[in-house]
Amino acid sequence: MQSTTTIREQLDLYLREHHMTINRFADISKVNSGTLSNIINGNRPISMQQLDRITAGMKLSEGYFYEIYIEECIFHVVPNWRRLGVFLQRCAELNKLKCLEQAVNLSLDSNSYITQLFDTAEGFYKDGKDEAAILIYKCLAEIERYQHSERLALCQYRLFTLRLSNDLDSNLLAVVQFEPFIDRLDEDYQLDALGNLINVNLTLNSWEKVDELAEKMINKAMVQYRLYLKTNKNNINTKRPLIVYILYGYLIRSKVSSEFGDYIKALEYVELYFNPIWIVNPNNDELLYIRQYNEWGKLNLYLYQLMSGNVEVLDDYIECVAAVDDEIFQALCDIVITANKQKLDIDHIIERFSEHIVYREFRNLTGKYNNQVILNRYTRLLVELGIYYIHSKNYDRGLSYIVDSMSSSLRIKSDKGILRCMGLFEQFRHQASEETKERYAELMSQVQKLSVFAWSPIV
User: Fold this and answer.
1) Cα gap 66→89, rounded to integer Å
2) Given CA atoms 346, 347, 352, 358 in this order, what sign does their dihedral have?
3) pTM higher than the cut 0.85
4) Separation of alpha carbons 413 and 450, rounded Å
């Protein structure tokens, strides 16, 4: 039917083919007969409501005429945001993303609708219409790429958060594209943006960058917190209380210090969030966060002592961990890493917490853990368990965990994780069962399809 040029011509043809009067079709479509007559005669444009009713009356699928509608009723008539805005909303509702993108691109030719388009994208973002929001943000970012505006920075921030996934490669690209814009953001968004950048860089093991961002977040939040203490008024509107960004910054810097083997400095940072005497007259909301960071601080005081070689604290650490169910997974990963470095026997600990060696959502007192961070930790836990059992001469069990970690590394596209698992498996291949070898071979067929390995033959 769409071979006919215009919507009104197709409507006119439908009426003639079905021997139907305008009055009869008006009853079916719920569109006034006079309005239908004017539409067919080309005397008035079609509103979105009328278009949807006409489409339903002709027994066609929703959005059937949208491609024609863009040219016929939006851009070949006097510009009308009310009509365009409703059209974009309907495209988002029906997932007609190509139509939405075409309409947005055409509307940007005059630059007259930039503000309205941005507001529409924000509405889509808040309503969870992510793909529609991404299309508009991308168009706006392109048209304003030479501007140093807060709106451009916010578009880039929205694109950054919407692009994040379990794919480490795409997350790295998202970080690279967004980071230059962070200082252009309105202050209301900067602290949360820094927190998001920290979380992504944690999964990428970019420890120096993580530390740099954490220090920046602490400094910015502390300036605002001191100003708040002086004026008793928040000057920025953040998702969480200001103290949270400072506490999280200290927690992250303690983590980074431990990764670099500086456990003395790590313990110094722990004290700053475990016992935050710098917080003045906390309210009930702030007290909840203080309680959470106190809990983490208690665990990490034991952990960093253990990592520094003080194995006497292991039993106390285990009992402390066991009392907080959603912390067991995180702690188990650290315990296995430490056991591998210090050649500790932790069979009894793994046995006790075996049901926690799973990937799932974990929560704490103030919300849920970042999904990308947990998946990255799960991948690390599996490979560390594999190394532990290989060291214990339990080769097939260890290699089975190595294959599990390789599967998880493929899921998140961690090149480093894949290569590490490949190296470990090939080193001990002769100790693997036939079943484990078959699983490994299946994963290798997937590895060969990855462009990063396309240059090298797989043995």
Assistant:
1) 12
2) positive
3) yes
4) 9
